[in-house]
Amino acid sequence: MTLPFFVYGTLRPGEVNHDLFLRGRIRSAEPGRLVGAVLYEGPGYPYAVEEPGDGEVSGDLVTAPPEGYAELLAELDRLEEYVPGDPRSLYERVERKVVRETDGAAVRAWVYVAAPAVAARLRARGRPIAGGDWRARG
C-alpha cells in the first residue's frame, strides 16, 4: 500500500533527516495535523503518542513516487528503528487519518508513533511539547 508519510520531527522539510532521506525522493510535502496524539520530547527527536482527546501533532504529509517507494519505506523503517512485531522497536508504523492543512481533507498516511513501551514511559514521565509542533518547542 503506497500511502504518504506524515512526518513531524527530523524528517520535516528543513530538518536534518529530511535532507538525508527525503530530499529529491519525494513528489510533495504539505502541512498536516495528526489529531488524537500528543507530542513528546525525545533524545534529539520527538515521539507522537496516541491519546484520545483533543491533542494534535503538527507536521507534513510527504508523498513518494511509486518507483522509489519500497526502498524509501524500508529506509524509514530502519531510521525509526521499527521492526514489525519486535518489542524493542522505538516506533510503530501505523496507518492513520491526517488532516491536510490546505483543504481540511482527511488523508490516510503512514505515521511513526511511539511503540507501546516507549509510549508508557513518556506518559508516566515524559515532557509533552506544548502545541504539538516540534519546531516551536522552547
UniProtKB/TrEMBL annotation:
Residues 5-135 form the Gamma-glutamylcyclotransferase AIG2-like domain. CDD domains: GGCT_like. It comes from the Bacteria. Signal peptide: none annotated. SUPFAM superfamilies: Gamma-glutamyl cyclotransferase-like. This is Gamma-glutamylcyclotransferase AIG2-like domain-containing protein. The lineage of its organism: Bacteria, Bacillati, Actinomycetota, Actinomycetes, Kitasatosporales.
